[in-house]
Amino acid sequence: MKTKFIIFSLVSSIFLFADYTIQTAQANALETRLKAQFYIQKPIQKEFDKQIEEKPQALSQQLPYYPARAKEAKIEGSLEIKFDVDENGQVQNIRMFDSPAVDVFGLSLLQAMEHWRYETGKPINNLKMIIEFKLSNIN
């Protein structure tokens, strides 16, 4: 009986330790991924749609991060985007035009744009903007 209890205790300890090791490895991988992002320090907007007379007033525009793989490979690029601003000042219906830069910078820009806020009031559709990702803009 004591032998069974000792074996059970050892096996349980091994499984608990293995689970702890996996969780630690996952936490370390997440921390590494977060550290691998480089934050853009300068404005990145190259151009706003010149055809729209009443441009909405931006209240906040979170800057996207510069992906580590793009920095390491010294990749720069620009994204042409269209989006709508609803009556609450929130960005909706983000569209990116196909370019090689979408694969590299698209996710970063989408995540940042989810936090953009504009002046409330009249909704505006099809705002067009060109966003540049340049190595000289990161820390």
From TrEMBL:
GO molecular function: energy transducer activity
Record InterPro entries: TonB, TonB/TolA_C, TonB_C
Superkingdom, natural source: Bacteria
Domain TonB C-terminal per the UniProt entry, residue ranges: 51-139
Keywords on record: Cell inner membrane, Cell membrane, Membrane, Protein transport, Signal, Signal-anchor, Transmembrane, Transmembrane helix, Transport
Annotated membrane topology: Single-pass membrane protein
Principal subcellular localization: membrane
Compartments, as annotated in UniProt: Cell inner membrane; Membrane
Any one of the GO CC terms: outer membrane-bounded periplasmic space
Biological process terms in GO annotation: protein transport; siderophore transport; transmembrane transport
Keyword GTP-binding recorded: no
Extent of the signal sequence: 1-18
Biological role: Interacts with outer membrane receptor proteins that carry out high-affinity binding and energy dependent uptake into the periplasmic space of specific substrates. It could act to transduce energy from the cytoplasmic membrane to specific energy-requiring processes in the outer membrane, resulting in the release into the periplasm of ligands bound by these outer membrane proteins.
Family to which this protein belongs: Belongs to the TonB family.
Protein's UniProt name: Protein TonB
